[in-house]
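Re: weekly structure request thread

Next one in the queue (658 aa):
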Amino acid sequence: MRLTPNGHIPLYLQNLCSFNGVDCRAFGRLIQYCSDHRLLRQANQLHARIVQSSLTPDNFLASKLINFYSKSNHLYEAHKVFDEILDRNIFSWNAMLIGYSIHDMHERTLNLFFSLLSSYSVTLKPDNFTITCVLKALSVLFPDSILAKEVHCFVLRHGFDSDIFVFNALITYYSRCDDLGLARVLFDRMHDRDIVSWNSMIAGYSQCGFYEDCKSLYRKMLDSTRLRPNGVTLVSVLQACAQSNDLVFGKQVHQFIIERKIEMDVSAHNSLIGLYAKCGSLDHARELFNAMSNKDEITYGSIISGYMAHGFVDKAMDLFREMKDPRLISTWNAVISGLVQNNRNEGVLELVQEMQEFRLRPNAVTISSILPAFSCLSNLKGGKAIHAYAIRNGYAHNSYVATSIIDTYAKAGFLRGAQRVFDRSKNRSLIVWTAIISAYSAQGDANAALKLFGDMLSNGTRPDHVTFTAVLAACAHSGMVDEAWKIFDEMFLQHGIQPSVEHYACMVGVLSRAGMISEAAQFISKMPIEPNAKVWGAMLHGVSVSGDVELGKFVCDHLFEMEPENTGNYVIMANLYSQAGKWEEAENVREKMNKIGLKKIPGTSWIETSGGLRSFIAMDVSSARSEEMYGILEGLLGLMKEEGYALWDELDEECVYT
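Done, posted below.
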């Protein structure tokens, strides 16, 4: 059957109508041809001819029509054809199910499946195509491992376990339930695997964060099968390389694409750009970006995220402004979070307002991204406004949103509000527990932090390295040496977490703050990993309190080498010399700072007033009410002296700024 060059249905189509009616099979095959070649107008003409003949299509012809309308994104017409079938068989049911499935209309897929079950008979039973559609819908709507096992049992009972399509769908289902172990068992038991089988398992590893397993299975595919990776395979592997910062392996995959001349669609190009951008190879990422003729918003988002992650904010913003009509909220979120990460907090709120002008509403990612900006500015009022928005729009119970609100309230000193958010959290994930523990730790309330840590363990939530950092920091603030040692020792013995340099730094802080300077020095000397600036910095804090000049010089020598541009270390060393009466040495440290070109930047604080946020520095006299403020401050200092507190006014003026 052929079409004329101009694409019209030739006159011989009239011969399809015989004296006995319409030849349904011939019409069905011709509609299939039009569907395969995207000849929409011609297929509509054929359907019109069928309607004119007053024929109700049989299952074969109706299935072809449903398939055509589904592929051309006319689901209403497809369902209308389905409703008109007098005696539906499984082929017509499957045609409609597949139509909903390819458009990710998963609720309608399940509803239609339940209707099919209500019409169940000896001649009408679900088959492998039915089950494949249902599994896809369930994996998206109900990613629950227990339900997946029940569906798996149904598959086994009804003999679908030998069908490759069903097996592939089950692998995807288990992967989305984060049950990669069972997914791999199914994969390994398959006698015959197609490209979808490999892609399902590789994608499962990549999406669930098992990046090394993803890359390992990809290597096995190259070595042991006649199948070659396609674009779908490579997208998963490239994403795994990007997330694990494995640029070397990613380049090998890129070379494979070039050598095998694998066809690359937009998503594959985006994955390549995302790989190079995330791994810091920004020039290469930009080359690929510039070479792309068809860019979408994800293309822009990938390279914008890369620029933001590596501190090139202006380049990221220039690219963002090139976009004429950014409609993906993920692009806006990438820019907003990038600004916050790079301490460009002033422009964040304006960007959120601009986003809303495009009729895009902030989602959970937006909210959790912008809240740190309020934390940095100590803007409690703004944080409460965002919290109210989250409640009104149903985002307050999102783990990441709840965590950001707790953090914002804690940094603004509003612990009562942080505790209330925690108490109302329905799903207390690890990050929520860690946030509230960190809140009390930062405020120096070690007892509350340790109690919450115990409650978390009793609740069955396993801590991670961040949780331990927060708990050890709480112990450091409160001088709880014994408790800190107990927690530090239990990290590996009970929880299998190898202490990192941050945890060693916390322990040094615990010991040095408690005045156990020699024990802290001995602890550093026995560390199994190289001490970094955080470790020596924690030690320096203890030394600055004890006034041990020689040990302070030893510590600062390490810090000057590691952080030559950190002015705080020079100031502390100069203050140590000043306190010991070694004025010449103190002056030498300051001269060294000047030679390097370093200048102490005064610390800035913010206060929220009825007129908005006001920033100020030490000895600030910019306010019209400065005299009144300093009068009150003098009064408070006098009261402190009466209570017996010693003031540091006899120390070097630089001490005020440390």
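DSSP finds 35 helices and four strands in the chain. Strands lie at 17-18, 21-22, 604-609, 612-617.
Next request, please.
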